[in-house]
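Students often ask what a 'structure token' actually looks like in practice. Rather than answer in the abstract, let us consider Helix-turn-helix domain-containing protein, a protein of 330 residues. Its sequence is given first.
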Amino acid sequence: MLHSHLTTLNAVSLVLSTFKAQGLPCDTLLAGSGIRTADLSRSDTRITTTQEMQVCANAVALRREIGLELGQRMHVSSYGMLGYALLTSATLGDALQLALRYPALLGTLFQLSLKVEGDEVWFCADHYTASPSLAIFNTELCLASLKVICEDLIGQPVALMAARFTHSRPDYHERYASTFDCPRTFNAPDNAFAFARHWLDYPLPLADPITHQAMAERCRKQNLEFTGRQTWLARIRKLLAVQLHAAPGLEGLAEQMNSSPRTLRRHLHDAGCSYQNLLDELRFERAKMLLHETEWPIYRIAETLGFSETASFRHAFIRWSGVAPSQFRA
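Now compare that with the structural description of the same chain:
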């Protein structure tokens, strides 16, 4: 929970649009995330990766192979200013190096790298940092989207030479062929795909040095904003996490942060959240952990999380997850 950081609504919006054709209401996919339908209309909305992963978990519960489809739809235009900076780079290699420089703007949950091996280049995604239960989904989404980005940049398909995945072969592995039409290895030491080295020097059709310089500078500033907010929010979460049994309130938290309540409220708003949002998020994560890993009665969990009445905790948990604590535990 405490490693959760800020990201955009790109992935969430993609999930919602993918299921919209099936007539599935947004509320089903947003359940337990704390994201409101009204938030989706604001281009400046920032959410945490924890919230994003809850929406993805809801999607995976409906369709386990959805990561492949989402990755195929995650075009370079989904990445805002970073996308424009990539498109206007001189070569594919230049664009990929720029993307690796700003992982926060990519919203990746992996450590990305390029490894040149002879005439091959391996685009690798290692050191996954999110929920283990969503590891396969996130691997499929990440690698599929990276391939799409490469093809968007050069304006034509890229023939892959090989692909490898750390997870075991899923029962829907035939679907991999539409994205990874190459020899595929499962239970591998890392997640990666390979393409011919000469593509790194391929001049991009939309290269523009002046626009690229301007966009790259805006990416640098946005990255500073993202990482600065992440550090600041991580400090707040750390403070709140040890006080869930007796939350300090906005005023008390502001004092602990050596800030005024007004300033703290404004900074939280600029980060796309609020004191209550953060408190609820921490309580929800702790509640899920206690329900899974302990046999504590519900009333004790409620007390530990700072609820004066068990009924209040039950109502809050239903609001967060869509089910009662007892149902979640079962």
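One point worth highlighting: Residues 68 and 170 are 12 Å apart (CA to CA). Ask yourself how you might have guessed this from the sequence alone, and why that guess would often be unreliable.
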